[in-house]
Amino acid sequence: MSTQSWATIHPSALADAGRPLQPVSATWRAHGAVRYRCPINGSFVLVTESAALTKLARSRTRLRCASCNEMHMIACEADDDTADDIVGTSRSA
């Protein structure tokens, strides 16, 4: 497997890599799923993929949003009575 040079990477990928990640609070749901609100479009996203859930068990991780296709920094909160109060904050202007 050969490595590609930086000249072959599309410029939009480099622009996206330079942008700050969107921090998002998430809560654990029934049967081990995780739910969060996308800070870009406000949609609720339910994460059920086992590989993503394994990464989320480590408190904070980067995850590509299924709703807007952007990368967010997901931080899981403790499972408590405020599970419906999920707020995502955007750091971009």
Describe the protein's architecture and organization.
The structure is a single chain. This protein is an alpha+beta fold and 93 residues long. The chain has two helices and five strands. The chain has a five-stranded mixed beta sheet with strand order 3-2-1-5-4, covered by helices on one side. A hairpin with a 6-residue loop joins β2 (34-37) and β3 (44-47). The protein is elongated, with a radius of gyration of 15 Å.
Short description:
Helix content is 16%, strand content 29%. With 93 residues, it is α+β, with helices and mostly antiparallel strands.
Q: Given the helix and strand composition, which structural class is it?
A: alpha+beta
* Number of beta strands: 5
Shape: elongated
Strand content: 25-35%
Low-confidence stretches: 80-93
Helix and strand string, N-terminal first?
A: HEEEHEE
- Helicity range of the residues? 10-25%
Mean pLDDT: 74
Biggest beta sheet attributes: 5 strands, mixed
Strand order of the largest sheet: 3-2-1-5-4
Output the number of helix runs.
Answer: 2
**What multimeric state do the chains show?**
single chain
Q: In angstroms, what is the radius of gyration? A: 15 Å
State the end-to-end CA separation. 40 Å
